[in-house]
Design a protein that fits this description.
- The chain is mainly α and about 120 residues long.
- Helix content is about 90%, strand content about 0%.
- InterPro entries: DAGK, DAGK_prok, DAGK_sf.
- It is a multi-pass membrane protein.
C-alpha cells in the first residue's frame, strides 16, 4: 500500500512539474477537459465517446514522455549536440503522429455523427 501511495505522489509531482514548465502540456490538458463534453455531443455510442476522450488523453501521454526526454537531454548537456537534437526531433514526431491519430478519430466520429459514414 505504501508503494502505491508513493507512486501516486510521484505521479502528482511529475504532472504538476509538467504543467508548470510546459505550455504544450497545459494546452493538451485544456483539450482533454474540452473533449469530455464534446465527445458526448459528437460520439454516436458510449464507446465512441470513450474512444474520443482516450485519443486526446493519448496525446497528453505522448507529450509527457516527450517532455521527459527533452528535460533529460537538456540536463545531460547544454551544448548543441546533433544526436540529442535528433532524439528531441523524434519525440516531437511522436507527438505529431499522436495528434494526427487523435484528429483522425475526431473527424471520423464527426462524419459518423453527420451521417456521412
Amino acid at each position: 500500500m505504501l508503494r502505491l501511495w508513493r507512486a501516486t505522489i510521484n505521479t502528482r509531482n511529475g504532472l504538476a512539474f509538467a504543467i508548470r514548465s510546459e505550455q504544450a502540456v497545459r494546452e493538451e490538458l485544456f483539450a482533454l477537459a474540452l473533449s469530455v463534453p464534446l465527445a458526448w455531443l459528437i460520439g454516436t455510442t458510449a464507446m465512441r465517446c470513450v474512444e474520443l476522450v482516450a485519443a486526446v488523453a493519448f496525446v497528453l501521454v505522448v507529450e509527457l514522455l516527450n517532455t521527459a526526454i527533452e528535460k533529460l537531454a537538456d540536463r545531460l548537456t547544454t551544448d548543441h549536440d546533433p544526436k540529442i537534437g535528433q532524439v528531441k526531433d523524434m519525440g516531437s514526431a511522436a507527438v505529431g503522429v499522436a495528434l494526427l491519430m487523435a484528429g483522425a478519430f475526431w473527424l471520423f466520429a464527426l462524419a459518423e455523427r453527420m451521417g456521412a459514414i
